[in-house]
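User: I'm new to structure prediction. If I give you an amino acid sequence, what do you actually give back? Let's try with this one:
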Amino acid sequence: MPPKNNTDHEPSNTTPPRPYESIHFVDTENSVWNYSLFTEEHIDNFKQGTLYNAYEFFGNKQLEVLGVKGTYFSVWAPNATAVSVTGNFNHWQSDKHPLFVRLDHSGIWEGFIPHVNRGEVYKYHIIGFEGKELDKGDPYAHYWEKKPKTASITWNLDFVWNDDDWMDTRENHNSLQSPYAVYEVHLASWMRPDPTNEESYFSYWQIAERLVPYVKELGFTHVEIMPVMEFPFDGSWGYQGTGYYAPTSRFGHPEEFMAMINYFHQEGIGVILDWVPSHFPYDSHGLFMFDGTHTYEYADMRKGYHPDWNSYIFNYRRGEVRSFLISNARFWLDKFHIDGIRVDAVSSILKLDYSREQGEWEPNEFGGNGNIEAIAFLKNMNEMVYRDFKGVQTIAEEATNWPGVSRPTYADGLGFGMKWMMGWMHDSIRYFKQDPLYRQFQQNQLTFSMMYYYDENFMLPFSHDEVVHGKSPMIYKMPGDDWQKFANLRLLYTYMFAHPGAKLLFMGNEFGQTVEWDYKTALRWDLLEFDAHKGLKTCVSSLAKLLKQEPALYAKQFDNQGFEWLDLNHRSESVISFMRKGNDENDDLLIVLNMTPKERIDWKITLSGLPSVWKEIFNSDLTEYWGTGNYVNNDLIYAENVGIEGKNEINICLPPLSGCIMKKISSCKIQPHEKDTPT
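Assistant: Good question. You get back a string of structure tokens that encode the predicted 3D arrangement of the chain. For your 679 residues, that looks like this:
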């Protein structure tokens, strides 16, 4: 159990950070004091899009000024004619606490309100363009009311971390040369107190008590949490956010979410957050038309509106918006100790013609379809992350052939650490959906991935998107009777974990969820009462643990020296084999995949090098995985010379619809048909 923090007391940091503190004037008779945390340098950086810690200045801050406790508020509303703070503390009267607009034309409104403390609900009442009146939540607030209420809450973050061991060494767990198996989770529907009640939630603490041990039991190295930033509509799954600087209050207050991350770190598990800098909804309390004009979004709807998601696109040309977004990425890394961000819908950010027909978009100044300011934003964001935070990763969900997504910016890339390998995912599912009889004609669907694999640092995703909207759960994508469905899925996961690259598996896929994912209901945990589902979960756990144990599966996962095809010439039998290699040849692994329900006895594979001895370390047909267990290679396997120097041959048994992984345990001097003692 992680230690519980007492957050019902005043925050320990009661004074503003120096040297930013300044007071233009103080009139103790006024209800709002003209007080600021900004310097001219901060304002210049904010306008230029280079204020990367904007959360230190914007939003609400509980401070003590001249011996008086209260809250400082600041908000960017450049086209407003008046801004005031309303809340329970002033009976929501818009004339009680007007903010002061800065005289530097920054569009920032600010002020200190005495005696407004932590935990007060509030909104900004904005009189905007042409006198339009709006009531908006605070874009930089750290805490919001629980939906359907929409006000922000005054809240200084106050948490004592005890994850130093993880933070000091996380580069060892989080580098591109480390094992990387990600369990993707939707917090609301992973498990619920009432499995069928969409309004039934566990708290962050209650989720952590269940989720952290479960992920550790599975053997996954990381958890990826679908968007947790505050959002109004459950059906958006978090991808339509309004509170970018606040974990959703559905499950508790921000410190409880911090405690969840702290607990993951104590158990040696990294945390990745899904991040959506591409679009936001039009809810009246959110970012859309914030001051009565297109403040955060492009005014030209050819660039500013997402037809697919009925939402609005950030104006990446505007420096203040870039400061907001890049600071947001930094905020989660800085204040919440997260280990990576998975950036959603990168293709839609990059391309002006994304989901648009001819005539519905305008080319850039060079006549192309790239959004030049958005490209610069992504590069700046990645440069900030890798410059300022050690041992973290940014991961792009990018589904096109855009070049250099995971290449450094100095090499003309976008600067991400990894990219989702969507082509591999689609090809693999298409192949496995086929009747095994016809797989012999489609082998290229499996092998094509290695033709372009080294163009990027790829993550192999079987994500939430593949088990919704009529696509069917993973188990029912597989052909055949029940036994063949489970055997096929175990084989697919074996192929996934043996293939180079990081791995991602959506919750429920590990035990064969039998219905499509539904955000309104919990996973079908009752399925684990059945041997087939329990066996599949055990198989996935074995693969995840094998990934961490065997350097050949990760040490060179993005290096062309880490992979070698051995046999692609048995199309009619639908058997393929390849080698995974580590930094030491004694780490080498041999992977053989039998894609049909026919067992193959005495299957021969030719190897190069010295004669050697191998041991089977994984077989997807074990009885504990709900396999047959009939054709497991329990004995040592000798690679014997076939009369050609440097060529050796092994004979193994291949169970039906199975994947076998063998490890070289030694080289030895073996004459044909003789089995000497390994040396």
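You can read the tokens as a compact description of the fold. Here is one thing that stands out. The CA atoms of residues 326 and 380 lie 8 Å apart.
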